[in-house]
Amino acid sequence: MKPSIFVVEDDPDISRLVRHHLEGAGFAVKVFPTGNTVVAESERQRPTLFILDIMVRDALDEARQHDPHANLFPEAIANLLGYEHLQSGDTAGAVEILKLNVTAYPNSPNAYDSLSDAYLAANQKDLARQSVQRALDLLPSDTTDTQDFRAQLKAADEAKLKQLSDAPK
Questions:
Q1: DSSP readout, 8-70?
Q2: pTM for the whole thing?
């Protein structure tokens, strides 16, 4: 049986493109135009992966009404997408993706660290400062990341916070 992917995408052209590439890679793909429609189907069949159109914001909210701990995408994938948008110059897109990641993973210091990078790239220094401070606040209670990763994140975030504190507001 092929691994299944549920795609939430309201743009028919993008839906066809995503379906074409994923099916070509050997996945069984179901496309849903809204978050409301994917929730009912995901209760009947649990896919291997969800791919969420960043602009279809109701999907996560709808899923969490049924399961408060539901997540429709892995944190690492959203981080990767956010940084890809940053590298391609789409700062606004990166901010939106990484804000969604923080919404999905509100206890993740890494999610807040990544969002602070996007805010820095968008020259939103106050929001960057708030996000990096939140990352530092969450680090002591983080149990998902390795100790080495937490130490690296702490050092990087303390340096970033110092840089932001020295910068004009």
A1: E---HHHHHHHHHHHHHTT-EEEEESSHHHHHHHHHHS--SEEEE-TT-THHHHHHHHH-TT-
A2: 0.68
- State the burial class of residue 111 (Cβ atoms within 10 Å of its Cβ: 0-12, 13-18, 19+): buried
Quick one: pLDDT band at residue 140, thresholds 50, 70, 90? very high
Structural domains in the chain plus CATH codes? 4-66 (3.40.50.2300), 90-166 (1.25.40.10)
pLDDT in tens, 61-81: 777 777 777 776 778 878 888
d(CA 93, CA 99): 10
5 Cβ contact partners less than 8 Å away, ≥ 6 residues apart = 22, 27, 28, 29, 30, 47, 48, 49, 50, 51
pLDDT of residue 30: 92
